[in-house]
Write a structure and sequence with these properties.
By secondary structure, the protein is an alpha+beta fold. The protein contains eight helices and eight strands. The strands form two sheets. The protein has a four-stranded antiparallel β-sheet. A four-stranded antiparallel β-sheet has the order 5-6-8-7. It is globular and about 45 Å long.
């Protein structure tokens, strides 16, 4: 989730999430050092919590943002865990049974190079589609989309490896709706 949602300030990493989501994964961050936190409430928004740590070694994994370098240092038997966190941060599962619409998407900035994701999904025989959208002068994004129930099942099997999630249960729980 850090790759998807963290901000870097000097030698500090910051992650702001909905308080309820963060509470379900906060213990994982404590494994990598002493993290500070603060909370805030804004009108018409869910309560937010930010955690932060100053750790040069940890920050060096994110500066420069080199996804290939980062993925190369993660042991292959744990790579699914990184993808679970990335899915929790920038992924979504959308199901509309009446329209027979089933898709998993990952979203990013407009010029995202999706090669790293295409490599993974090609390796598990899951076709992808990439789109780039400009909604107005101040907002644009790109997304990688996976469709078809059988492909969504392959993504689920890869992400969770037959286990309960490391991260957000709400996303894990939603997947089986695609094939039941």
């Amino acid at each position: 989730i850090l790759w998807a949602d963290c901000s870097i300030f000097g030698n500090s990493l910051r992650l702001e999430l909905v308080e309820e989501d963060l509470s379900s994964i906060k213990h994982l961050f404590e494994l990598s050092g002493r993290w500070g936190n603060y909370k805030r409430a804004r009108p018409n928004r869910q309560p937010q919590e930010t955690i932060y740590v100053t750790n040069k070694e940890l920050v060096s994994l994110f500066k420069p943002r080199d996804i290939d370098k980062l993925l190369s240092i993660i042991p292959q038997d744990l790579i699914y865990a990184w993808w679970q966190g990335y899915f929790d941060g920038d992924g979504n599962i959308y199901i509309h049974k009446k329209r027979s619409l089933f898709q998993v998407t990952f979203s990013s900035y407009y010029l995202e190079d999706w090669t790293f994701a295409e490599k993974l999904f090609n390796s598990i025989d899951v076709p992808t589609a990439i789109s780039r959208v400009v909604t107005n002068k101040s907002h644009s994004y790109s997304s990688l989309r996976i469709t078809a129930r059988s492909n969504i099942r392959k993504v689920y099997d890869f992400l969770y490896q037959g286990n309960e999630p490391i991260g957000f249960r709400r996303k894990w729980i939603k997947f089986p709706e695609a094939w039941t």
